[in-house]
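Appendix B, Record 12. Input sequence as logged:
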Amino acid sequence: MTGIEFVLAVAIFIPVAWQLEATHRRTRDLPRIPFGADAESEASAKYRRQIAELRQLSQLAAGSERQG
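Logged structural output:
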């Protein structure tokens, strides 16, 4: 790596590191949830209800095709 390439690499890296450090300072004190805590969230419960409803409809449709 020549001198100018090294200077350019450092010139690119320093602002990125500066922004990452600033972001880390702002986010490190945010509350954390334990892993898997979102498994029982409202959105996932709604999704499971919708999937169950679609399964029932599909079974009803399959049953009516066999009869008809």
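The CA atoms of residues 37 and 44 lie 11 Å apart.
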